[in-house]
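Supplementary Data S3. Sequence and structure tokens for construct A.
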Amino acid sequence: MSRRLGVVTAAALLALGVTVALGALSRVPYRVDHSATSVLRLAWRARGVRVDECRQVTAEEQAALPTHMRRTEVCEGRLLPYQLQVDVAGLTVLDEEIRPSGAREDRPIYVFHDIALGPGQHDVAVRFSRDSLPGGEQEVVTPAELGFEGRLTLGPGEIVLITYNSDRGELVLGHGGR
């Protein structure tokens, strides 16, 4: 019994020591040097364009269904993905397909990327585009092509934001921060 009491006491003292050590380490000051990096932040929400893909239901498929569920045509809808490309000084730093959110990809598209850059001037080109709809655009929620080009001057530790202005239907320079 005394051996078991010794093991429990040792475990309790070890747990107490680890807790005190973690508490002491959590109070150690930590400084981040932002002087060497700046950030180009891309952040926006866009509503995609829905496309419906319909097909005729075969007689065998209809026969397998209860009467109240039978229909002649089945349609499945989806939102078109966008392609995001970012060039800095003529070099592509980001090229990614942005898919709609949601399990069925039927929710808005969210873009959030931080691109680390050094302080100074940078020629930036952002392109956010999707395929055009066959037969033309019906209800345009977010344009098929959005772009931003410009020379940005970033200070040490500065964050410059590019966002989507839905009222103007374009990518714009927003407010950044530190």
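Construct B, processed identically:
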Amino acid sequence: MSTPLITDHMPLRVVMMGASGAVGAHVVAALQAAARCEVLTLLNRRPLDRVTGGTVHSYVINVEDPSTYQAYLAGHHAAVCTLGVGQPSAVSAAEFVRVDRDAVAAFAVACKQAGIAHFSLLSSVGADASSRSFYLRTKGELINSIVALGFARVSIFHPSMILTPTNRYGVMQGLMLTVWPSLGVVLQGPLRKYRGISDATLGTAIAQNLFTAGSGVEQLHWDQCMALAQRDGAP
């Protein structure tokens, strides 16, 4: 039996994969602070010692094997996936595909089978199955597979540069973190979607979107993410 889509003032039960990442951690924090989130189930490759108690239920699972987490999915209204390889250039193409596409697609299938109505995905600006870029093509293939499952609602978040407080991946990321914030003044009109967004703002936007009504497939870029994060009552 499908769990209904969320409506105004309705308590929300969320299951999430990818809570250990920079954006995922902020999604968790926002949902923990939201009174309407009555259950938050976290599926992780490793224990999350910092996230305990209250509405949170955390399980260590194999992200590539749905049989290790299928039993935890029933009864949730929404699923959030922020799982991904933190530094794609540091892994093989096969590893990237296995985690960023195949493991996430398997999670989406399991969620659909469990009757979850709303699936939210952290993707990337420019994701397109026809792209010449291997990274963007893989992301686009994943989006297509999730949309094809027929969820009542699918929310795809398309950030450009995700701005983190610290440099986690070396010289190149350090340079990007220094330069990208200043590009906002030149990224106008159709280019606004390439503006950088902080991991905290993006995480809050993903969480806030869960509490809004909607249906069908929605593509959320910089403007939509900023609006969500700045809403009155944002968690």
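The CA atoms of residues 36 and 70 lie 24 Å apart. The chain has a mean pLDDT of 87.
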